[in-house]
Task: structure prediction
Amino acid sequence: MQKKYVYIVTSIIVTVLIASLIGWAIFINKQQQALQSETQDLGYFGDSTSSNSRGDSFFGSFFSNSTDTGSDSSASTSEQRPILRQLYNLPTAGFVKNGTGTVRFVDRRTGYVFEKDLSDGTTTRIDQTTVPQVYNALFLDNGKKVVRQYTDKDLQVISVLSGSTGEGESASLSPNILEITTDSTNQKLALLERSSSGSELYIYNLETNSKDLIFHSALRGWNIQWEKSVILVSQKPSAGLPGSAYSVAVSTGLTSLLLQQKNGLQTNMSPDADKILFSSTKNGLPALSIFNSTTSAVLDLPLSGLPEKCVWHPEKPLIYCAIPNKFPEGDYPDIWHQGTIHFVDSIYEINAETGSSTMIISPETTDGLSLDIVKLTFDVSTGELFFVNKLDQTFWSLTLPKSTSFNQNESSE
Amino acid sequence: MRVFLLSGFLVSLSLLFAGVVYAQTFTPLDPLTISLSPKYPQPGQEVTATVTSSDINARSATIAWLLNDEVKKQEAGGVSYTFTATEVGSSQTLEVLVRAPDGNISSKKITISPSQVTLLWEADTYTPPFYGGRALYSIGSNIRAEAVPHIARPEGGFYDPSEVTYVWSKNGVVMGSSSGIGAQTLITEGPKFLGNYILTVEVRSPSGTQIAQSSALVETYGAMVKLYERDPLAGVQYQSTITNGYSFNDSPQIELQAIPYFMDARTINGSSLAYTWNINGETATNETGSPSTLNIQLSSVESISTQLGVSISNNSSPLQKTESTLRVNFEGSTKNSLFGL
Result:
């Protein structure tokens, strides 16, 4: 009887021990899975298995999952409603959408380059070259190269061109760069450089690290935008001052006056270089219009906004704009550029031929989100907008709903 | 019926004028003058032509206007006619026929070849890197200006900017030493004593027959300093100025960056700019090696409200000075004093 009792007690103890071991194993496995998922998601660690420093460094407080808002991800819902996603919850210096369903972006604090797979949400760090305080990053050559721009203690801009995966040699670009942009295929660079007599616009050859002068001016305050075979040079805006814009032919340097002496002028040229979305100060607000360079006709839009918060559809006469819900009193765009005020934007689709517009989403209304949108880009293959929220520099995407002209036209063709 | 009679009268008058144009010999001393407003029409601009006469009371005469030999207007006392100037590279002929009450007819014909010049200007003042706006003028700074002419050659094509003559003026006073052939750019002092002036450039073709003019009002805006938080990793937080009531959270050490918008300086920490920081009215020493920044070591368990100030003066331009004083809040930290480093 006593022997039987010993067997029973022993069996119970063994069973409890086995159950505990199994439970412990499951717990540990879940912990590892969670850690791996997080490190993959934000990619701060080159080798996800080599570190578990979550919470013990400055990165700790930044770990949170990417945020999808506005709808769930089911196909039926996504057809009806725009899907807003936070792709990266830390300051982002620049990004590019690759043709492969991924985005590459540069972390502003570290200069690291990450690649995020948009289908499964995983994020991988592909370059761990540390470059703190990257204010602006520009990708080239299908994301294979990147220009990081940071400053020294005197706020002088330093621009370095390198491979975005860390391989290859880096090249320091001129310390006199005032503005930098790429052509529409991201294959070439245009550099506006400070000179002793004003400024000079160069086309930079990535292969030879040489550059060709195509334009010079006594002025230095130019914005530049490269579309097709022309570069739009437009005076930097101020509310009460007239501005003018020229096109500069890349091959010949021939300049043509497009818009002249418009107060607060800011511009955004269409991909075919035929139309210019511009704003000019009317009744104290930046009123949007479209200038047709072929006919010289101007189409006034019933919206106030800034062209730098807009992007053209690459193939159709459509424009997507982040339109401020309201304008606090002040001089625009000056006080916004100086960071004195922020906007809370809604996203609109504008028909560039008729001037009609449709609001796609108001993140403030639908999700309680304050988005002050900059660096807006559009990926025609997926109907996604990508942008940075100026308020905190985080990186977002918006998938357009079926109801937009983009998708309606797509389906009808 | 009245319309018919009026039309008949006008047709008759135009036929009469048509006959006169080819039959009459005009007096050598041309009694008519056509003046244009604006004086130098730009392409596409609305232009008003006005006829005056030294020996005819034009207002009591019947006047016909012909643009490119086509009658455009014909009425008694019609001394003015408004039309749209053509594009650069083409020309228009404008002719006026004046039939005085005594039956004498005079005429005047001019050719209008619009030329264009765009006057661009900006202040040569400081703005931070990546700033998207224009540099504005503050007292004591310079102005950079450039004239972009668009004047057609008679034989086709356009004059190179280096071939034409530029006459620069401030409030109508010609700047002779800055003007001349090819003087396309100008660097000059801005207005003094918070004032303004009108900067004008007149551009003439080599023959002097084609003239274009453009003007700009140059106003004083004034320098200003704005404060930003400077994150040790993310850098200057240009997207948000520090304003009254701003709260600093969590960090025991804070770095502030002063940006001297529109001051006459090439670099932010150049020797021409002198920064004076103060905390609660007392001068704060700065040992960062960057006079435009201030490090603050926060050390109070409790939240505190503090007055922060910075003033910036320009050693090379004594009238150029700006300051900012703000009351800001520091949320609690773990140490026990507040001082600049």
Observations:
- DSSP finds one helix and 25 strands in chain B.
- Helices of chain B lie at 2-23.
- The mean pLDDT of chain B is 86.
- Residues 2-13+30-112 of chain B form a domain with the Immunoglobulin-like fold (CATH 2.60.40.10).
